[in-house]
Write a structure and sequence with these properties.
Blueprint lengths: L13 H18 L20 H5 L1 H12 L24 E6 L5 H7 L4 E7 L2 H13 L6 E5 L12 E7 L8 H11 E14 L5 H14 L7 H11 L1 E8 L9 H13 L5 H4 L1 H15 L2 E10 L1
Parallel strand pairs: 1-2, 1-4, 2-3, 4-5
Antiparallel strand pairs: 5-7, 6-7
């Protein structure tokens, strides 16, 4: 652990994270490389990703594999009795929950390929509105919805959930124990929780503290744990760790645009109002350095509800 790592992390409440995404989502979609797909997370050039679209959907394809491994969906609790005594009961689609759903692109992608009903939750009313438009345009309104809310305060009537996932949203939460407790409340026994996000790596380099601090401030990070911390909290909440895959080698690091942003950050640093307007770029540049130096890693972690 780097020196000073045990000091209190800067706290960002839900209102601050909400404003961050309200302010930046339009630019993420308009200028981000995955914006035409609605993807505001990073591309992962994992095995089988032969083009950029596949790289932006690589994590969602892994989620689809988890859904298939859940087995056949169970019968609907309120299904009408079958007319024929030998007929098979109606099957309810799997219920998939996106914790930090952005503009609903991941849920829409999964719903177009699997018999799921999906629920997404986002702090941002801007994102919730864009998600509703995307879902409507895709003709998925009967099976998919995205609501404005806090994944640390999930609606009482949300469960049961077969698969819950958080793609680059777990780190924004201020209370990981509350996050896992809420997930344990809605994910059914045998169900799966998947996190794809940045996690600490052990390091003694003093420079790590400065870069991680810039990343935390720029991206409004409330939770940056290492693997062991995440597994311990998950276990306490009722989840069994199944696997963790390091996706860092599959990220695009050191692109020309990243070098250009790094130069800008070096010149202006945190000078107001630049820091307020471009905090996402400043934080992203710091994260690039952290990932390149091995101070932070990008993991896909899977947990089973016991």
């Amino acid at each position: 652990m780097y020196p000073g790592a045990r000091r209190a992390m800067q706290s960002f409440d839900p209102a601050q994270v909400r404003r961050y995404y309200d302010r930046h989502t339009a630019r993420f979609v308009a200028l981000g490389q995955g914006g035409n797909l609605g993807a505001i997370h990073r591309a992962v050039w994992g095995p089988g990703a032969r083009d950029r679209a596949a790289a932006f959907r690589w994590v969602e394809d892994r989620l689809a594999e988890h859904v298939h491994r859940l087995g056949e969906p169970g019968p609907q609790p309120d299904a009408k009795p079958n007319v024929k005594p030998d007929a098979k009961p109606e099957s309810a689609p799997w219920h998939v929950l996106d914790l930090g759903c952005g503009i609903g692109a991941s849920l829409s992608y999964l719903a177009e390929r699997l018999p799921i009903r999906g629920t997404g939750i986002t702090l941002s009313p801007v994102q919730a509105r864009l998600a509703a438009q995307r879902i409507d345009q895709a003709g998925l309104g009967d099976r998919v919805r995205c609501i404005e809310g806090d994944y640390c305060e999930l609606p009482d009537d949300l469960g049961p959930v077969d698969l819950a996932y958080a793609i680059e949203s777990f780190l924004h939460g201020p209370d990981p124990r509350r996050f896992f407790a809420q997930c344990a409340r809605v994910v059914r026994p045998g169900g799966v929780l998947v996190l794809c996000d940045d996690f600490r790596r052990s390091t003694a380099e003093p420079a790590a503290a400065r870069s991680i601090d810039r990343f935390v401030r720029g991206w409004h990070v409330g939770t940056l744990l290492d693997r062991q911390q995440v597994r311990a909290i998950a276990q306490q909440a009722g989840f069994e760790h199944e696997s963790t895959t390091d996706l860092t080698p599959y990220l695009e690091l050191g692109r020309p645009r990243d070098h250009a942003i790094a130069v800008m950050v070096a010149l202006v640093g945190w000078l107001p109002p630049v820091a307020r307007r471009y905090d996402d770029l400043i934080g992203g540049s710091a994260l690039q350095r952290c990932l390149t130096r091995g101070w932070v890693g990008y993991d896909l972690a899977c947990f089973r509800r016991v």
